[in-house]
Design goal:
By secondary structure, this protein is mostly helical. It is built from six helices and no strands. It has helices spanning about 10-30, 30-45, 50-65, 70-80, 85-95, 100-125. Helix 3 runs antiparallel to helix 4. The longest helix is centred in the C-terminal third of the chain and has 26 residues, at about 100-125. It is elongated and about 75 Å long.
């Protein structure tokens, strides 16, 4: 008896499920260890200016541990990526987590700077251009 091959979608779902199981097996027993590893990888990526990867690692670490400092680093990565509104939301979420005074000061300063950058960005969009279009006679 010959079996028909599984549709690609089913195969893809099986592979994703297996990979998810591997990640859960690696970090499920000790989510804090997984969060620490994500923190290290995120910091390394941030130092290398690989901000999307840093954001991914910080997000993974936050999902594993729910430690608020991940939110602060996610905000920093988003800010470096130019995602100012999303960064602002993460800074404010971090501030709502009752952070340590030194981290709170960093986040509050970042909020002021990001809000200013957003205002400047919006003003630049509203400002008419100084360019003059020359129409041939």
């Amino acid at each position: 008896m010959v079996r028909a091959p599984l549709p690609w979608l089913v195969v893809a779902c099986l592979v994703c499920g297996l990979l998810g199981g591997v990640e859960r097996a690696a970090f499920g027993a000790d989510p804090e260890a997984g969060a620490r590893e994500a923190w290290k990888r995120g910091n390394r990526a941030f130092a290398q200016q690989r901000y999307p990867l840093a954001l991914e690692e910080f997000t993974r670490g936050y999902e594993l541990s729910k430690r608020p400092r991940f939110l602060l680093n996610m905000a920093h990565a988003l800010r470096k990526m130019g995602e100012l509104r999303e960064a602002l939301a993460h800074y404010k979420r971090f501030l709502g987590s009752d952070p340590k005074p030194e981290d709170k000061a960093v986040a509050e300063e970042a909020v002021v700077e990001v809000e200013q950058a957003i205002r400047e960005e919006e003003a630049a969009r509203r400002r008419p251009t100084d360019a003059v279009t020359v129409v041939p006679a």
